[in-house]
Design brief:
The complex is a heterodimer of chains A (about 1050) and B (about 800). By secondary structure, chain A is mainly β. With about 800 residues, chain B is α+β, with helices and mostly antiparallel strands. The chains are: A mainly beta (about 1050), B alpha+beta (about 800). The interface of A and B includes residues 463, 532, 674, 706 and 793 of A.
């Protein structure tokens, strides 16, 4: 049977229903559609359930019915549901229920506990809904007056029938009202169909054609036909009216008895159900089979046709109820038995436990009654089902959590016949848990906890910070761990440890470690990084002997050496230092893990511990100063106290440039370094003097330090390449504003503005003055020009792209001698973990190359822009030649150059219209070459082989393959766009990859736009007078708005020639 | 008529001067420079106040005609070096003054900086409407009120082919001929050719028209005589002004000084310095000369009232010493003490911004202890609502808002402000926390102060307003017209803030604030940096690498800082007393003197002595009899609104009214929409759960028509003027037609619902309403009228609900509810 079931439902049910459990199936004995056709009521033993016919969801059910439900009927208005049920041989009960509009609840309106002396099979509302006819095994037909379905009325008894019709001599199996409500027909095991005057209660006539019990009966929608079927396997159709009936047609319909018949709403189709488990649709007039549905696997006990006749509901002896497409018989939704539910856990109570205990946990969820075993991947966890019998909603476990289980979510796998489910509803705490309570808003007054403790709380509203106060002894090591995202919380935690007065002593994110200096009260605070809050921002905060690594020193170890690395932290046990050996072939800058031995309680310490691979001999800074024995070398220091400044001394020679570089933030230190070069006497060493030659102002808004664009008040004195100085930042113009509502663009890498000569990008407030400056050698003097002169020293805060907050300085020593680098934290911060590495070394000018996108999808017959980005190091500024190698046949990308000082170039990767799909694998790469210090240097970037894309909405074409432009002049070319696939919108154009100093002139407010009415547009290029002759490709691309797609033309060669 | 007035004046003056001393001012006349004239002032003086001016009528004589001559009317002219005594005689009484002339051989001639510029300023030549305009007038551009003598000298003597001064024929100088309108002059005749002004300019030209020199004696201060005046309406009093220079010399500059009055309706002053009293009260005569200003108070007592009222008045602490002294001087009888019932509502609203609950009122009223008011004050200062309310006020001052800060930064800022209030952090430490903040704006919230004020000038100006209670913005472009601050001092001050660096933080919305090793604020006119110096403080040593913000904070929070403590004391005073000792609260300047200078000094001194403890300050104010006076005016003090003769009735702030509505109606205000700025529309916010009170909001951008209408500050600029305290038609319309109150009354679960459900008797309902909203039971009349209104509605729920809503509405829109009294 299972196999047949699965075959039948293979098309719609993905999960094969599991074998039913030990309990026997409950036959589905009655079904009825709500007149709206949106719900179907399904009756079985003791129960009627309503189902949504489109989703199969069960909004509600009535479960307190005595005995098997034998018949169901909705009144024509859908306000009442009549239920017949009862114990065979004893009584037939009829109950009237009022369903809520969504069939979620049913209110009993009236009931006749002993409507009949035995089972009720016939149940039919009159078309006006006022009369309910019932009949059954006791051979009588009762007509009941239906009480008005008034809200809130207490249930009434259906007192006595209005009428009782008593002519049948055997069981009455079916009743049917004529559509006008005047006639009632009844079908009986006495082999007759009788027609009654409902109003008068008199029998009009008897149709005696059937040769055996009659089970089923129905009027045609127009009220002119009566159909019946029964044990004689035939369907008979009579022309019937008030005055009598004439047999029109009869047909042997099924292999076994006909159980149900029903007319479709238009009267043209007739459905029948037989004991042979077959459902058929008939042409009602001709009584010919139209559709025979697949044989049902078990006896059909209940059948109903949806009012729109598009769907039938079938209920079977095997407990199965389903909705089928009436035309094809395809099963649509299985209602019963409910598909076996794989176990799923919603929650656990308690939801947490400390380690080293066995707790009784009740899981709540679905399908839990089928769970046979519960396991966990965490070693040592034992979960046993208790003796308490599980229900579908609840399951009780005895859960043993070993003492070394990791705090956080404890995954439990529930196994049952319907499948496995792994859940993390349970959380392991380090320590016994207390819930956040009372006011926790301040370190001064926060909730008190006793260590060790796990605090369960929530950042429940925006701006919330929770503080927990605790007592600690002098020297006590306090480790803090917060578990949040791991248990489904949205919190992005920030931790702070303060003294009783709220002074911050230590900060952290997910962990924090602090050794208490003096006995007293301290507090741990937790908040969201962005001060968000809400009920879903819960956390579990573990405070106590938690092993936490807070830092290592030094931050790096030279390759080929072994160094003793000091590990700072709390609860780490006796370990103070770990020997770290770095192989000689390790890559400089890579990370080597520091194997910190288990801490207190044998636990793996929290917090990553690793060092960077260094290259040079290192010395430690002692008493805020150190002298490097030789260059290159590295100094390792800790800015232990706020405001600390260290001096790293080194010897330098004129003509031998050096690079000074800090590694701190990049290797996990909290230090935001700032460095300055001073001479032996401690005087700052000037780097340049900046003579102002013009000025302008910041306008429109305050500008932050990240963006390459700044809105200028005026720029008629300015040109591309000019240096501007403001707020300590020296910046360089990359592109002029294209119009009055446009920003001036400054040199940038990765969208972030770049500071020159060691300056750091700063905020520029509305109204601030920007000076155009000329850099001159230190000491240069000028005749006054009414503008300020600024002296730049060898100072740096942030090193620029890739350095984060770490510092970097290029230093060309003005004279032989001893110099010193002053190192400090830019914000004046300091602390035991504020380590840094400072390296003094000769520059190694170099570059790396990168292409975006890495794997391009190229339009067939079109192009996409490829951007080549060069990352320059140690002052390398020269041009980089770019070649594409290994292009698949039919693909084109021209060679180009990343110009001196610049970092990007753009070309079009173009595919011919007839290009074949390239092979999946290949050696497509970019080869970038440059001459550095007389050497040819080549760097590659591997690329994914491009793929071909079809269906471009736009094709962009530039009429010429080459454009010639003279410096200081303009030239024009035409871009044509062809719209495809019905696209008719406007098309913005962009021009990329132009040489420095060449720009597009005729840019409107919306950029370069091809309007809806146009198919082409002229573009004007202009070259600044200083642009040197050059020849390079550039890209014209059209943007498909709404799809964010770019359609490039084939690269065009621009020749700048005098 | 005129003589009649003089007679009256004379008679009344005599009456006044019983026991007065005859005085001649200045006490000593010294003449060392070209200015040979000194006007004398002869007055009767009582307890340091001049009460009658006899200058015009006194008889004068000199002991040595070779040294000094004295004319009728008291004008002394220096004749030759030496000493003389000038005697003034009034009605048989005499007073003397020593005159010492030390000019030596040869006169130094008029000084451009100290004489010529003042003449141009006094005669209006370099005023904003004339040649001091930004673009000048008629091709001649002078610096506004002479703040740039070097440039002015160049302009007058050399610019445009030296057309304005004729060295060869000084009388033909264009400068003079225009001024006396010998040639057409758009500015009219500024003076005549026989005037003193003309003579000064002509003499200056004749002697070569020298320019300002480094060695010119710098003006140190000006002295005003008399020091103070106690007069009656229609009395007149001459004011004389002496300039004191760094070299120790002094001279009469009355004829070049500028005069003004802070209260024209009490005392006016002519451009020559003649004060005429017009009404009762007190006015300050402001005097400006060069870059210095001064004031003298003119007191005009009210008609004498019932002196016995002073006998009954309570006296709690030093505040009352000063307030009562002033009231006695002004003949303003104080109102009596407020009742306990008035006090409990008043103090809850003023200190915590909340209404007292009926049970709190009952407990307080039933308390027989004599010190119960003091204990209530202590209890209020310990409440959470005190922290909310004052966090809100300081957030107003500091512009905590998401207007220009991202949400996380706004929260960080607010939390730190709030914690400081909760900790009662000393004001000096709080200021230092803000002004020296470094690091992440998310970790160290007060660092956002520098994000809000990124521009150095704005930062300097905002800091002056926030912590010094004074506006220095005018001095950015020219010397301050109302204050002594010069443009140089402004830029020296601004330069203290030039090394605040802002760089991008680790995440969006985060900014790192740090000290920069270099950078200067460049003087707008000079183009170079001034040595960084606090206002009136010592400049930092040249080349100092010290943290400038720290240097400023050290100066600011030093016990002897002349502005810092007064600025905050005045703000707190105003919050409780309804009017600042200086009004507006952030307009402290020499030309806007406090109503009670000694009291402000005493309060500031006490505040500093108690380590800048704001709660101590509050306790002192709230415990004073001045605060605890009835708000009911007496006929004797009805005209007073600034001397604290009674508690000043004031409309409750917007947030307090809205929260009080919540307390009475039991229906919270939803704060679920945030304004995205002028063009950005609205965004839903879930940051403020139901039940959040208006005074708990950290942000000023939560949408509330009510708060907007009733004057919530935008927190866009540092100015007390952002909060509207007035009543307006829009407010009345909002109360009548707006939805704020109606929504609360109609809400399910509101107090109206409960009173309906609870089926409480009408009398109980009316009583509860009055107790919760007004902190008092209804009067018999009120109880009857309200009870009748409810009775008429009957038991029909709809009608009864309507009647209940009407009653609550009537109370909550009434003056007694909306005002603190």
């Amino acid at each position: 049977m299972t196999q047949r079931l699965s075959l039948l439902f293979a098309c719609c049910v993905c999960v094969v229903p599991a074998p039913t459990l030990a309990a026997p199936a409950v036959p589905v004995s009655a079904v009825a559609y709500h007149p709206s056709g949106t719900f179907v009521a399904v009756g079985s033993h003791g129960r009627v359930a309503a189902f949504d016919v489109s989703t199969g969801a069960m909004p509600g059910a009535v479960t307190d019915l005595p005995g098997r439900v034998t018949a169901l009927a909705f009144d024509p208005a859908g306000k009442l549901l009549a239920v017949a049920c009862g114990e065979p041989g004893k009584a037939g009960l009829v109950r009237l229920l009022r369903p809520s509009p969504d069939c979620a609840t049913f209110v009993t309106v009236a009931e006749a506990a002993r409507a009949h002396a035995d089972s009720v099979y016939g149940l039919a509302f009159s078309p006006d809904g006022r009369t309910l006819a019932t009949a059954g095994y006791d051979r009588v037909i009762h007509l009941w007056s239906v009480p008005a379905a008034k809200a809130d009325a207490p249930p009434a008894a259906l007192e006595t029938p209005v009428r009782t019709l008593k002519d049948h001599s055997d069981t009455v199996y079916a009743l049917a009202w004529s559509p006008d409500g005047a006639l009632l027909a009844s079908a009986s095991a006495d082999r007759t169909v009788k027609v009654w005057d409902a109003a008068a209660g008199t029998r009009l006539y008897t149709l005696g054609d059937p040769t055996d019990w009659v089970y089923a009966l129905g009027w045609s929608p127009d009220g002119t036909r009566l159909v019946a079927g029964g044990v004689d396997r035939s369907i008979r159709v009579w022309a019937a009216g008030r005055d009598g009936g004439t047999l029109l047609r009869s047909a042997f319909a099924h292999d076994k008895a006909v159980l149900r018949v029903a007319y479709g709403p238009d009267g043209k189709t007739l459905f029948s159900v037989g004991e042979d488990r077959v459902i058929k649709a008939w042409d009602a007039d001709r009584l010919k089979e139209v559709v025979t549905l697949p044989t049902q696997p078990d006896t059909v006990l209940a059948f109903a046709l949806r009012p729109d006749d598009k769907q039938v509901a079938v209920g079977r002896f095997d407990g199965f109820a389903a909705l089928h497409d009436a035309a094809t018989g395809k099963p649509q939704i299985q209602l019963l038995p409910a598909k076996p539910v794989p176990p799923a856990v919603k929650s656990a109570a308690p939801a947490f436990a400390p380690r080293g205990r066995t707790v009784t946990v009740t899981l709540a969820g679905k399908g839990l009654d089928s769970v046979t075993a519960v396991t966990s991947t965490v070693p040592g966890v034992v979960a046993k089902l208790t003796t308490k019998t599980p229900t579908a909603d609840a399951l009780e476990l005895a859960l043993t959590v070993p003492a070394n289980a990791p705090p956080g979510p404890l995954p439990l796998t529930l196994e049952g016949p319907a499948g496995k489910a792994t859940t993390a509803a349970f959380v392991v705490d380090r320590f016994p848990a207390v819930a956040e309570a009372g006011s926790t808003d301040s370190a001064r007054t926060g909730m008190s906890v006793t260590l060790p403790a796990t605090v369960a709380g929530a950042i429940d509203r925006a701006g919330d910070v929770d503080f927990f106060r605790f007592e600690a002894a002098a020297g006590q090591q306090v480790g803090v761990q917060v578990v949040a995202a791991e248990v489904g919380s949205k919190l992005d935690p920030v931790l702070v440890l303060t003294d009783a007065g709220g002074r911050t002593l230590a900060e952290g994110a997910a962990t924090l470690g602090y050794t208490v200096p003096t006995a007293g009260t301290y507090a741990v605070g937790i908040r969201d990084r962005d001060y968000r809050g809400g009920p879903d921002m819960t956390y579990r905060l573990h405070v106590g002997p938690v092993p936490v690594v807070t830092g290592v020193f030094p931050l790096g170890v030279a390759r080929g050496t072994t160094a003793s690395v000091r590990v700072a932290g709390v609860n780490l046990g006796p370990v103070a230092a770990v020997a770290v050996a770095v192989p000689a072939d390790a890559v400089a800058g890579s990370r080597v893990a520091v194997k910190v031995p288990p801490g207190v309680g044998g636990e793996v310490p929290l917090g990553a511990a690793s060092v960077g691979v260094g290259e040079f001999p290192a010395v430690a800074v002692v008493a805020n100063a150190v002298e490097l024995p030789a260059v290159p070398a590295t100094a390792d220091g800790v800015l232990a106290d706020p405001g600390d400044a260290h001096a790293v001394r080194f010897r330098a020679a004129k003509g031998a440039p050096l690079v000074i570089e800090v590694h701190a933030g990049r290797v996990g230190s909290p230090v935001d370094s700032a460095i300055e070069i001073r001479d032996a006497a401690g005087r700052p060493v000037p780097r340049a003097v900046l003579r102002s030659t013009a000025k302008t102002f910041v306008t429109l808004r305050d500008h932050d330090a990240d963006k390459p664009g700044i809105r200028l008040d005026a720029w008629n004195d300015l040109a591309i390449g000019d240096l501007l100085y403001a707020d300590g930042e020296l910046m360089r113009i990359q592109a002029m504003p294209r119009g009055p509502d446009d920003d001036c663009l400054f040199f940038q890498v990765g969208g972030k503005r770049v500071g020159f000569l060691g300056t750091t990008p700063a905020f520029h407030a509305f109204g601030n003055t920007l000076y155009r400056v000329e850099p001159h050698p230190p000491g240069t003097t000028f005749a006054p020009n009414g503008m300020p002169v600024f002296t730049l020293f060898h100072r740096n805060d942030d090193g620029g792209p890739g350095f984060g907050a770490d510092s970097y300085l290029a230093f060309d020593p003005p004279a032989d001698g001893i110099y010193q680098v002053k190192v400090r934290d830019a914000r004046g911060a300091g602390g035991p973990t504020h380590a840094y590495r400072l390296t003094v070394r000769p520059p190694r000018p170099d570059f790396a190359v990168r292409v975006s996108p890495e794997s391009a999808a190229v339009w067939k017959g079109g192009g996409v822009p490829l951007t080549i980005t060069v990352t320059r190091t140690d002052g390398f500024a020269g041009p980089v030649r770019v070649r594409f190698a290994g292009l698949p046949p039919g693909f084109h990308a021209p060679d180009t150059t990343v110009e001196a000082d610049l970092t990007t170039a753009t070309v079009s990767l173009f595919a011919d219209a007839d290009a074949a799909a390239p092979p999946k694998a290949g050696a497509f790469k970019v080869t970038a070459g440059a001459t550095i210090g007389g050497r040819d240097v080549v760097r590659d970037a591997s690329l994914g082989v491009p793929t071909l894309a079809d269906g471009a909405d736009l094709v962009t074409t530039v009429g010429q393959s080459e454009v010639v432009l003279a410096p200081g002049r303009e030239t024009k070319f035409v871009v044509a766009v062809e719209r495809r696939n019905g696209f008719a919108g406007r098309v913005p154009l962009d021009v990329l990859g132009l040489p420095h100093g060449v720009r597009v002139l005729n840019v409107g407010l919306n950029g370069i736009l091809v309007t809806e009415r146009e198919t082409s547009r002229e573009v004007t290029l202009y070259a600044e007078p200083w642009v040197e002759p050059t020849s390079r490709p550039f890209v014209v691309l059209a943007k498909r708005e709404g799809k964010k797609a770019e359609h490039a033309a084939r690269s065009v060669l621009l020749r700048v020639a005098k | 008529m005129r003589s009649f007035a003089t007679v009256i004046s004379f008679v009344t003056s005599t009456a006044l001067v019983a026991g007065a001393d005859l005085r001649v001012y200045p006490p000593v006349v010294t003449v060392a420079g070209p200015n040979a004239l000194q006007q004398l002032l002869v007055v009767d003086e009582q307890v340091g106040r001049a009460v009658a001016d006899h200058t015009a009528t006194a008889k004068y004589s000199t002991s040595n005609h070779g040294v000094a001559a004295v004319a009728e009317g008291g004008l002394v002219t220096a004749i030759g070096d030496g000493e003389a005594t000038v005697t003034a005689t009034v009605g048989g009484r005499t007073a003397e003054v020593k005159v010492r002339v030390e000019r030596g051989p040869g006169s130094p001639g008029w000084n451009f900086r100290n004489h010529v510029e003042p003449v141009l300023t006094r005669t209006g030549c370099n005023s904003g409407a004339c040649h001091g305009a930004l673009a000048g007038k008629g091709g001649l551009k002078l610096s506004l009120r002479g703040y740039d003598p070097e440039a002015d000298h160049f302009v007058l003597t050399r610019q445009a082919q030296a057309r304005r001064v004729d060295q060869l024929d000084p009388d033909e100088s264009l400068l003079l001929k225009k001024a006396v309108r010998a040639l057409p002059h758009g500015g009219g005749r500024r003076f005549t050719d026989d005037s003193d002004h003309y003579q000064v300019l002509l003499d200056w030209v004749r002697r070569g028209g020298a320019g300002p020199k480094e060695a010119d004696p710098a003006l140190v201060r000006i002295e005003l005589y008399p020091r103070a005046a106690l007069l009656k309406p229609k009395d007149t009093m001459r004011v004389i002004v002496r300039a004191v220079y760094a070299d120790g010399t002094a001279e009469d500059v009355t004829r070049w000084a500028r005069f003004g009055s802070t209260e024209e309706q009490i005392a006016g002053v002519s451009e020559d310095g003649l004060v005429t009293v017009a009404g009762h009260g007190e006015a300050a005569i402001t005097v400006g000369f060069g870059t210095r200003v001064g004031t003298l108070p003119v007191t005009s007592p009210f008609p004498a009232g019932d002196p016995s009222l002073f006998d009954e008045v309570r006296h709690e602490n030093f505040i009352d010493d000063h307030v009562l002294t002033k009231l006695r001087l002004l003949n303003l009888s104080p109102s009596g003490s407020c009742t306990d019932a008035e006090f409990v509502r008043r103090s809850y609203l003023d200190a915590c911004g909340i209404l007292p609950r009926p049970d709190e009122v009952r407990t307080f009223l039933a308390d027989p202890a004599a010190d119960k008011r003091a204990r209530l004050i202590d209890a209020l200062l310990g409440r959470k609502e005190y922290v909310d309310y004052w966090s809100y006020k300081w957030s107003d001052l500091l512009l905590v808002s998401s207007r220009r800060l991202p949400q996380p930064a706004m929260w960080a800022f607010y939390r730190q402000v709030r914690q400081s209030v909760a900790d009662n952090r000393p004001w000096d430490a709080f200021a230092r926390d803000i002004l020296t903040a470094s690091g992440s704006t998310l970790h160290n919230g007060t660092a956002n102060y520098f994000v809000l004020h990124k521009d150095t000038s704005h930062l300097a100006e905002a800091t002056a307003t926030t912590f010094l209670g004074t506006a220095i913005g005018c001095a950015k472009c020219h010397n301050h017209p109302l204050e002594k601050w010069t443009q140089d001092e402004y830029w020296a001050f601004a330069n203290l803030f030039a090394r605040v660096g802002l760089k991008a933080g680790d995440r969006s919305g985060e900014v790192f604030v740090l000290g920069r090793p270099d950078g200067d604020a460049l003087h707008l006119r000079r183009g170079s940096a001034m040595p960084p110096a606090p206002l009136g403080g010592t400049p930092m040593p040249a080349g100092s690498d010290a943290d400038r913000r720290r240097y400023f904070a050290d100066w600011l929070t030093a016990a002897d800082n002349p502005f810092f403590a007064k600025a905050v004391v005045n703000r707190v005073w105003r919050a409780y007393m309804g009017r600042g000792l200086v009004e507006a609260e952030d307009d402290l300047r020499d030309t806007n003197p406090p109503s009670h200078p000694e009291l402000l000094d005493a309060l500031a001194k006490d505040f500093v002595a108690h380590r800048y403890d704001l709660k101590h300050l509050t306790r002192t104010i709230l415990n004073s009899a001045a605060y605890q006076r009835s708000s009911r005016p007496l006929k004797e003090n009805a005209a007073d609104d600034r001397f604290y003769s009674r508690y000043l009735i004031r409309r409750l702030p917007a947030e307090v009214i809205l929260d009080a509505y919540v307390d009475v109606t039991q229906e919270p205000t939803p704060f679920d929409k945030v304004s995205l700025g002028p063009s950005g529309g609205l965004a839903a916010s879930t940051s403020y759960p139901r039940g959040t009170r208006a005074t708990e909001l950290p942000d000023s951008l939560l949408v509330s028509r009510f708060l907007e209408t009733f004057g919530r500050p935008e927190r866009a600029q540092t100015c007390a003027c952002e909060r509207t305290r007035d009543s307006s038609v829009t407010q009345a319309l909002h109360l009548n037609n707006g939805q704020t109150l109606n929504d609360k009354l109609r809400a399910k679960g509101s107090v109206v619902d409960r009173w309906l459900d609870g089926k409480a008797p009408d009398a109980v309902v009316v009583d509860r309403l009055f107790q919760t909203a007004l902190a008092r039971p209804p009067s018999a009349t009120e109880a009857k009228r309200f009870g009748d209104a409810l009775g008429e509605a009957g038991r029909d729920p709809v009608a009864r609900r309507e009647a209940l809503e009407d009653l609550v509405w009537a109370v909550l829109t009434g003056r007694e509810f909306l005002f603190n009294h």
